[in-house]
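Contributing new records

If you add data, match the layout below exactly. Sequence lines come first and carry their own label; structure lines follow with theirs. Keep one chain per record. Anything else will be rejected by the validation script.
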Amino acid sequence: MSKNIVIAIDGYSSCGKSTIAKALAKKLHFIYIDTGAMYRAVTLYFLRNKIDLNNPVAVNTALDNININLDNHNEQTLVLLNEEDVSEEIRQMPVSEKVSQVSAIKAVRTEMVKQQQRMGKSKNIIMDGRDIGTVVFPDATLKFFMTADPHIRAERRYKELINKGEKVSLEEIYENLALRDHQDTTREESPLSKAKDAIVLDNSTINQEMQLEFALTYIRPLLSDKNLE
């Protein structure tokens, strides 16, 4: 292909953005970039180092000391924070409770967007997040916007955390998602919104296989047969 392809997947928390993005990347042999994990890694660093989010100097100093890399290992994306694998820790509740607040900080978003744009300049990529199709790659080749019923999203997240051995309640998860939705959609810096040219994928009542086929229906015309397994 003469020009690299960028597929942007935006949407609400716990809609399965990363799940479908990973599946598409595997199917298409594209590079998957988990932007949410990048913001979670920053949040973890801030929590560990007790960074005052209201102190611009402290925030900027911290960002200067943060190096995030994404690596693929056994078809899993490893999130490396200053060379430490934090893939599991960034998914725990302490990070979930703060990540929307951290990601709303302009300096944080500016730095992460720079890193994300660098990744998408020379390779075929699939990137998911909150503002990929609106801010990071407004000229993305194809854009999806994912949504689902809030109660279904909470139940999915609850099962995921319980299976990992975490002690959480369904009510706690639901309240956390409601708060994050509010923070994501109302923040001043790059709020969550659907790009005008994004294709809506509501997965409230469809499984992962159906979601994948839905997305491929739009992607296949962009590719030659050799790009699909």
